[in-house]
Amino acid sequence: MSNTEDQSGNGTQMVAFVACAGCAAGKARFAGNVSSCEEALEKGFARGECKDGCVGAGSCIKVCKQGAMSIEDGRVVIDREKCNGCGDCAAKGVCPQNLIRMIPADATNFIPCSNTDDDEDSVRKTCGFGCIACGECERSCPEGAVSIVNNHAVIDYDKCVGCSTCTVRCKKKIIVDTLHDLTKLKDKVAFVRCSGGSKAKAKYDEMGITDCVAAAKLDARSMNLCTTGCCGLGNCTKVCRYGAISVVNGTAVVDPDKCVGCRDCTFACPKGLITIIPYKGTKLVPCMSTDDYADKAAVCDSACIACEDCVRNCPNGAIYMEEKHAVIDTCLCEDCNMCQYVCRRNIIKQQQVPEYIYAQHEAMKDEEEGGRE
């Protein structure tokens, strides 16, 4: 195959692509301890590592005559300006994991994962960039260009037209889209159902605890802390690939402009405080406390006291009580502000209404219309 033709011989310029964007295959452990990727595989993977990912020993880099490949932050990166599509790095035997493929140079969408694990929870724990084979991209692609192969999504570039549909619908938001801004191409974002974690955060800092999982196992009630509130130690911030979560005044807060709705943070929170909500203007109750009013008032100034004023006054019936705290049905909420007006503790938050960009509207239109039929 020449460096300017694909396997069909149609003259398409090709470039190399590494179908792995993570560092979960033991890269840190192998770094400086092996001389080749083959040696790394012979040493084997440790528990919790991705057995299908790039081990980062650089066997592919050694064969690249154009100097188009390098390792940055533990990942093999290809300089598409330098790559001439010779295919040396993708030749049989170079990458023992078979992660390097030749794709059209003008391709704009990429799925950098070759995971074969069929357990979603396992994949999420192992790698933030791991494909969970949910099939949303495959079902939504208008050109039939995406399919699930061996538990990960694959793009057929003979069919792909570079639209944003798969990018929007990807649950983990791992699909690389060079044409569209992924932080805007989304229909849902994360929200933390707590706004009063400062007291707990201060207590855990005093005790020297740095992990939310460890903190969640303690008897919060005996320490005069909310039993359901945010620990404020940032397990969610560590897994967010978009820098969309930060701990502010002892409580995790999501920036909806940066969040893409991948749900990685929802799996990281041991208390289940983070939920996914529609990316549209709506009202939200940041509290999940199931305690009685007196107990809530003793430990938190921003807890829902279950007075039900918001429930009784919502003109759309969008608010209901669930285990002694108010919940807003985002599908019914019309953003009228009545609940905020009547809330005695002034705790109900308002999400800013974003302007949907044209690309997202077009990507979601077909599915929305199909759901109404």
Q: How large is the count of helical segments?
A: 14
- Helicity range: 10-25%
DSSP strand count: 16
Query: Reading side by side through the largest sheet, how are the strands ordered?
Result: 1-4
Task: Extract low-pLDDT stretches.
Answer: 1-9
Question: What is the CATH fold-level name of the largest domain?
Answer: Alpha-Beta Plaits
Sheet with the most strands, sense and barrel status: 2 strands, antiparallel
Order of helices and strands: EHHHEEEEHHEEHEEHHHEEHEEHHEEHEH
Provide the gyration radius in Å: 24 Å
pLDDT averaged residue by residue: 89
Shape designation = globular
Q: Please identify, by name, the CATH architecture of the largest domain.
A: 2-Layer Sandwich
Query: What is the domain tally?
Result: 2
What is the CATH domain class of the largest domain? Alpha Beta
The assigned structural class equals alpha+beta
- Percent strand equals 15-25%
Distance between the termini: 48 Å
